[in-house]
Amino acid sequence: MAIKTTELLPSSSPEELKKVLQSVASDWGDVIDDSDALQVIPLKGAMTNEVYQIAWPAKNNGLVRNVLVRIYGEGVEVFFNRDDEIRTFECMSSQGQGPRLLGRFGDGRVEEFIHARTLSAADIRDPKISELVAAKMREFHDLKMPGPRKALLWDRLRRWVSVAKSFCSAKDAKEFCLYTLKDEISMLEKELPNDHQEIGFCHNDLQYGNIMIDEETSSITIIDYEYASYNPVAYDLANHFCEMAANYHSDTPHILDYSLYPGLEDRQRFIKTYLSSAEKYTLANHIFWGLWGLISAYVNKIDFNYKEYARQRFQQYWMKKQELLSSSTIRQKINVNGHVSISQKILSDSC
């Protein structure tokens, strides 16, 4: 069904978006005189932006053109610099990675539509698909990107703690241990392996929704680079393993099932070289996305229970900290109360 773009797309600059679409169509030899000729299909699963597939009939041959329109989410500028992301996007495209950037407008952009299937939560646990993802991930880490080749993880975490404090009520700040998280981050930075730790260009958000597969060629495409930066490769592996606990297309997309976290054999199959340090980096990963969820609860209006998501990520941090870190000094600081919910003070007891 043809729908007016201005009626469905929540863009603050619809006329600018229309001009971009007309320009893209013109480059392909098409003409868009009337926005009623556009078919707009909302794509589900995004938690930072709103994403739409837009199609129109080509001028010749009866073909249908498709592009992807991304409307930036409100408040997400607290997480990353949009200009940096666009530079990353363009650099990735120049190296044959991901979709091409077709145009930009005030609060979004138009991208090449990739004719491939987005992976599901079950797909990333499939051994054959997982091996394809591992190979693509290795390729991603070897990309030569602008900027200093150093880990940005720790400075980003400290900045997000400050942002979370500025938004949160005193009750939330206490419940989520925001007053002690900077100490935890400094401890992890010191404790986690640094010598000979490989630094690569990391995606930092390699959940199944950011991975696409062409089933005819079995080729993998990694998309969405908002959080991409240089980081320890082990962190990116840890993040990918943690994402196996999520199903963002369920009736409760914010609920995480850590029984789905990959077992030793699965992790070894994915990658052996970085296994030990990757496992420890899940701790930093839980803080990273815990802070993201907590801040998003205040700045993002997408229908997703960000605060409950954050609660689960912080809960996993405190529950797994003792198991993954062997330092006796750290061990003395941990309260071992078993599997108690955050509301029953597993967080406040630990901080």
From TrEMBL:
**This protein's GO CC annotations:** cytoplasm
The record's comment on protein family reads: Belongs to the choline/ethanolamine kinase family.
Looking up InterPro entries in the UniProt record yields: Kinase-like_dom_sf
UniProt-listed PANTHER family: CHOLINE/ETHANOALAMINE KINASE (PTHR22603), RE24176P (PTHR22603:SF93)
What Gene Ontology molecular function terms does this protein carry? choline kinase activity; ethanolamine kinase activity
- Protein name, entry field: Choline kinase N-terminal domain-containing protein
Q: Which GO terms describe its biological process?
A: phosphatidylethanolamine biosynthetic process
